[in-house]
Design a protein that fits this description.
Layout: E1 4-8, H1 14-25, E2 35-38, H2 42-55, E3 62-64, H3 71-78, E4 84-87, H4 89-98, E5 108-111, H5 114-119, H6 123-131, E6 138-143, H7 148-157, E7 162-166, E8 177-183, H8 188-197, E9 204-207, H9 211-223, E10 228-231, H10 237-248, E11 254-257, E12 272-275, H11 282-289, E13 300-306, H12 310-318, E14 325-326
Parallel strand pairs: 1-6, 1-7, 2-4, 2-5, 3-4, 5-6, 8-13, 8-14, 9-11, 9-12, 10-11, 12-13
């Protein structure tokens, strides 16, 4: 029952790492919520719940996320067999305030992708949720990075945790063909079009840093006749589900996304990841490019480097185990 802090990249198999002891800890004769899993996004909640269900046919988690009607969640939480809840902090807190969720019986708590959760502004919500759980609970925290805010949370809310590294089952950066193109900032859209046009029907995931930037690029691509879709944190659950389904089945060939989409997405046939905007750090770079070359398939990660971004990209490169190859844009650029 020791607390655990796991350094784990997305796709590293960490869901099984916490799900198996979670399932083993459940007392099926007891009532009330015994285990709580907090994740940053709806997609990650659905994936974690599905993996727990796959590992144990007896334990079907209640998924509690925003962007969908709250009524069915309230009904599910009233079920006396609802021993495991998986959800996002905002909606979990909503249920606590409504009195439709009680955490007094929780003995196993998981904070998954904690760094991303706090990056998205959930720190106050997470703190309030933790204060509603018993102090003698077992806590497992998983994070790709360990910034000061995470270390502070560990110090405040965990008891002498064991530290471990969860080995990655996802494609490592050396299994992806990595290239970069040096372009003038205002020519990035033209460069992106040239890359897409040079390939035979690619399925491309294009990353921008901001919601505004992603929206602007999506509009430009649609105006130019490309089958493009848009994914960012401001989308409703139904919009996100429809967008991801359309991209996965090929109705849209380009998905313009913010970093929220770089974690937890598992779309097997993505042929290209394009860093239209540079990632903030090497961890984000690795998370982004890990969306391609999945399930044994080939994949290309292309980064567009503006003239003012060369030093920033060099810093990322120095932290990678392989050298990113510089290439020339196709002649149409």
């Amino acid at each position: 029952g020791e607390d655990v802090v796991g350094l784990a990249q997305t796709g590293s198999g960490k869901t099984a790492a916490f799900a198996i002891p979670l399932i083993e800890s459940l007392n099926r004769k007891a009532r009330g919520v015994q285990a709580l899993v907090l994740v940053p996004t709806r997609e990650l909640a659905a994936q974690a719940a599905a993996e727990i269900s796959n590992l144990s046919s007896h334990d079907r988690p209640v998924v509690v996320c925003g962007g969908v009607p709250i009524g069915p969640q309230i009904k599910a939480l009233k079920n006396r067999s609802a021993a495991v809840v998986v959800g996002t902090p905002g909606r979990i807190l909503d249920h606590l305030q409504r009195g439709t969720l009680r955490l007094g019986a929780v003995h196993y708590l998981v904070l998954d992708e904690a760094d991303r959760m706090l990056d998205m502004g959930f720190a106050p919500d997470v703190g309030r949720i933790l204060s509603n759980t018993p102090e003698n609970r077992q806590t497992a925290l998983f994070s790709a990075t360990m910034p000061g805010v995470i270390r502070g949370m560990v110090k405040r809310h965990m008891r002498s945790p064991q530290y471990l590294t969860v080995e990655s089952e996802a494609p490592t950066v050396d299994t992806v063909e990595q290239v970069y193109y040096q372009v003038e900032g205002r020519d990035k859209t033209r460069a992106l079009r040239a890359l897409i046009d040079a390939e035979d029907d690619p399925l491309a995931l294009v990353f921008r840093r901001t919601k505004h930037g992603a929206t602007k690029l999506h509009r430009q691509l649609e105006r130019d006749g490309y089958k493009a879709a848009l994914l960012h944190g401001g989308k409703s659950q139904s919009q996100r589900t429809k967008t991801l389904a359309g991209f996965a089945n090929g109705r849209s060939r380009i998905l313009v996304a913010t970093n929220v989409a770089s974690r937890g997405l598992d779309i097997p046939n993505v042929s290209h990841v394009v860093n239209y905007d540079l990632p903030e750090d090497v961890e984000t770079y690795v998370h982004r490019i890990g969306r391609t070359a999945r399930a044994g398939k080939d994949g290309v990660a292309a980064t567009l480097v503006g003239e003012a971004e060369v030093k920033e990209f060099d810093k990322i490169q120095r932290s990678l185990p392989v050298q990113v190859r510089r290439s020339n844009l196709p002649l149409s650029a």
